[in-house]
Amino acid sequence: MTRLQAKNVHISYGDRFIIEDLSLAIPDKKITTIIGANGCGKSTLLKAITRIITHRSGSIVLDGKDILQENTKQLARKMAILPQTPEGTKGLTVGELVSYGRFPYQKGFGRLTKKDIEVIDWALEVTSTAEYKHHPVDALSGGQRQRVWIAMALAQETDIIFLDEPTTYLDMAHQLEVLELLQKLNKEQERTIVMVLHDLNQAARFADYIIAMKDGKIVKTGTSKEVINREVLREVFHIDAVIGEDPRTKKPICITYNLLKGEEKDEEISHFDYPALVSNYGSM
């Protein structure tokens, strides 16, 4: 079953098309990751699916209804999005920021109800940020702030959460912390997670379904083993990669890679002893 689909979508900025004739289906209750080189249209696609920008033609359908015809508050009860660089937190406490997630449910003067407060406290608890409830958001570390933004998305009580590069600017430990939280939300609460990631190994490790894009088009979709391979990465990123198996997760892992620089470079790379290199990695 697929609740969210895009059919023959075209997206442009002025006369410049970023995405042309793109169709896809987002698997329900799974983690989907979109990968691709800078400028390939990943973030643009995310913005179109969540109606931040309008597509020129085609349709994006959620629960059988075109999102352009959906009431804004109703749509916000179904999907939440965290942009690449969230802003606007100056002067806000953690609790105040997370309370914004209740906007789709507020009426009249927008006062928080008992139900709103319960959901906010729950979201803070799930993301391990309850202790920061009265702290200024700007005083938190990068990883803590990212968890607070995720708490705000959870407070929306949506089944689908979109994240545009949620690990950007975070160190390795905080990146893992955020991704493990998203994986936990998916497993325990069956949230559909859709995110853009730059790190191929993180995408392979955490995604159930990967969408590889190039020049506004989809090159390949499928599991990490179907997408994270030498052929796909050559086409999408113009690199020649050595792919092994992560000894802990049994998922594909990019061990090393070279930038392709034409036929002469291809010939030189082909002389590497790939089987030996992959075998040595697996025995580490």
The largest sheet, given as strand count, sense and whether it forms a barrel, is: 6 strands, mixed
Calculate the terminal CA-CA distance, rounded to whole Å.
40 Å
Rg over alpha carbons: 20 Å
Based on CA inertia axes, which overall geometry fits?
A: globular
Oligomer: single chain
Q: What's the order of the H and E elements?
A: EEEHEEHEHHHEHEHEEHHEEHH
| Low-pLDDT sequence parts | 264-274
Number of strands: 12
Describe the structure.
There is one protein chain. This protein has 284 residues and is of the alpha/beta class. 35% of the residues lie in helices and 27% in strands. The chain has 11 helices and 12 strands. The protein has helices spanning 42-49, 72-76, 94-99, 114-126, 142-155, 172-189, 200-206, 224-227, 230-237, 263-269, 274-282; strands at 4-13, 16-26, 31-36, 57-62, 65-66, 79-82, 160-164, 192-196, 209-214, 217-222, 239-245, 252-259. The strands form 3 sheets. A 6-stranded mixed beta sheet has the order 6-7-8-3-9-10, sandwiched between helices. A 4-stranded antiparallel beta sheet has the order 2-1-4-5, with helices on one face. Strands 11-12 form a two-stranded antiparallel sheet. Helix 4 packs antiparallel against helix 5 (142-155) and helix 5 (142-155) runs parallel beside helix 6 (172-189). The model is unreliable at 264-274 (pLDDT under 50).
In short:
This protein has 11 helices and 12 strands. It has helices spanning 42-49, 72-76, 94-99, 114-126, 142-155, 172-189, 200-206, 224-227, 230-237, 263-269, 274-282, and strands spanning 4-13, 16-26, 31-36, 57-62, 65-66, 79-82, 160-164, 192-196, 209-214, 217-222, 239-245, 252-259.
